[in-house]
Amino acid sequence: MAEAHVPPFFIETIVVLSAAVIAVPITKRLGLGAVVGFLAAGMAIGPYGISFFDEPERILGFAELGVVLLLFVIGLELEPARLWTMRRDIFGLGTAQVLLSGLVLTLGAMLFGFSWEIALIAGLGLALSSTAFALQMLQERGHLSTKYGQRAFGILLLQDMAIVPLLALVSILAPAKADIGEASIVIQVITVVGAVGFVIFAGRYLLSPFFQFLTASGGRELMIAAALLIALGSAGLMSLVGLSMALGAFLSGVMLAESSYRHTLEADIEPFRSLLMGLFFITVGMALELDLIVANWELIVAAVILLMLSKGFLLWGLSRLFGSSNSDALRVAVTLPQGGEFAFVLFSTATAAAILPEETANILSAVVILTMLLTPLGTVGLDLVAERMKKRGNTTNRIETFEDACPSVLIVGFGRFGMMVAQMLTSEGISVTALDNKSERINYARQYGYKVYYGDATRPDVLKAAGGENATLIALCIEDDRIMKQAILQIRSAFPNAALYCRATDRAHALDLTRLGVDYQIRETFESSLTFGRKALEYLGLPADRIDEVEEDVRKRDKERLKLQLDGGEMAGSDKLHQRTPREGPNSDKPEE
After folding, report:
1. Do the beta carbons of residue 234 and residue 249 sit within 8 Å?
2. Helix, strand, coil: what percent of the chain each, to 5?
3. Where is composition skewed (Basic and acidic residues) in this entry (predicted)?
4. If we measure between CA atoms, which residue out of 391, 392, 345, 384 comes closest to residue 364?
5. Could you give the 3-state DSSP secondary structure of residue 479?
6. Which of 130, 363, 475, 516 is 20–30 Å from 414 (CA)?
7. What's the count of helices (H) and strands (E) in the chain, helices before strands?
8. CA Rg, the chain, in Å?
9. Domains of the chain, first to last
10. What is the DSSP letter of 468?
11. Beta 431-436 vs 452-454: how paired, if at all?
């Protein structure tokens, strides 16, 4: 009997998935979130658990692709104009946080007896918060689009960019004997600027025609492959010139934020992002060295307390200084007090450059991981306090603006019918997002100033990326009856709170839509036919009040006929087509005596 062949990494994959599906539901039930569950799963199967993985760093490089894809998706949600409006938070608040936190933590490290070089690397490295951890928490809680969520994101974005000068600082501080390969500063700057410029140019001018060509070729798999290629390719290019891979993916995402394909790209990337992010946190959990913590527990506990308290206080104070309310400043403070994944990069580089002893780097890495584990406790505690204050009636006053209260509408299908619907809504300032699956129609609508995105009406993930969860009303204006039925079933399941308005192609389709329970349906030619008939009666000399009577009667008989057809079939109520509208007054229609 032939020996069974097990594919490479098959057993490892089973173990990782098993640990995740056990640990994550438990931590979510405890209110700690999925991230803590992934970290706990990693600790359980790592060297200090069941010891299934003895070298977690082997898969850390692959797992870090989750951070790359996360930043690509975040970039897709931020148009360049919107990013420009965040410049104060990014370059003002973000820079102040890194410098002040770095200074305080450097002085703290020197108090622990470290040399100024080691203290500087440790302090600046710990000043960086975890982009992956914080954004994952904000997304889980639905807070990324809030004011404090956007402010926290601005700080994180600056921290991601700060890793570049921090790595340069390692080169400056490195002993002359350390072999770390120094390139000409001028050449390095030109290379970096050229790489960033290429990503921006390609994102703005080349990618939309590229995706338009792919959609014409058909095939969802091709679009998924292209989305991964763009995200990972831009990340790889940035890595080659010494920048953060995550920053490269973010830049390409921002450049595609105004593209018609952003929502489909986001939906295609999301499953890979979620899976790889989970793997990243599992790997971080594996890397926690419990014996090192036990041997140096006093130092590590003191460092964790110093790090979280000092960063939290500085984040609160700076957020208040930059205009945040007290509650928003507190939320920023409890979201970003932890160390970050880029600290691992900085510490390992400093170790290779003979600045940071390996044992010290391991202790600092343990501090970072422990702060990640403790951060959700702070957010849960703040939520409990906020809930208690709410019950007592001590809620903060919030000014409601029309923009906050304004309902949003998702229009699916943007031909002549959908465009007129959009015109009616936007004329009253209603927020509209439009989807269509025909590139030529999207380009045509954009010529008239409408923002229309590429998307499939039958894919809930695309509709969700386009804002389906927050839509007050979803208008299906597509022509294909079969596709519309599939879309209705998907929307009713995924977004039960949204009102569903549909365009019917004919009377039979209107009956089908009624049976499906849509909130409103109308035949595409019904109103125009009545208007046409009115004009014909006007030309034939009928007075306006009589024309009103005829129109009202025709509408009434049409509704009655539709009700009869629902039960009796297509021919039911046919007699109502030929009835005359009664007249009132001396010339009223009366049966002969």
Report:
1. yes
2. 70, 5, 25
3. 573-593
4. 345
5. coil
6. 516
7. 28, 6
8. 30
9. 11-175+183-392 (1.20.1530.20), 404-577 (3.40.50.720)
10. G
11. parallel
Output b/e per residue, 3-27; b: 16+ Cβ within 10 A: eeeeeeeeeeeebbeebbeebbeeb
b/e code 338-376 from CB counts within 10 Å (16+ = b): bbbbbbbbbbebbbbbebbeeebbbbbbbbbbbbbbbbb
Residue located via tokens 């939309």? 208
Structural contact between residues 502 and 484, judged by C-beta atoms closer than 8 angstroms: yes
What confidence tier does 588 reach under pLDDT thresholds 50, 70, 90?
A: low
Question: Are residues 471 and 498 in contact, defined by beta-carbon separation less than 8 angstroms?
Answer: yes
Nearest to 242 by CA among 170, 140, 149, 136: 170
Q: Which amino acid is at 435?
A: L
Task: Summarize pLDDT for 451-468 with one digit per residue, the tens.
Answer: 788 888 788 878 887 778
* CA-based nearest residue to 417, from 326, 290, 503, 314: 503
Question: Which residues in 37-71 are b (16+ Cβ under 10 Å) and which e?
Answer: bbbbbbbbbbbbbeeebeebeebbeebbbbbbbbb
Task: Provide DSSP, 209-226.
Answer: HHHHHHHHH--HHHHHHH
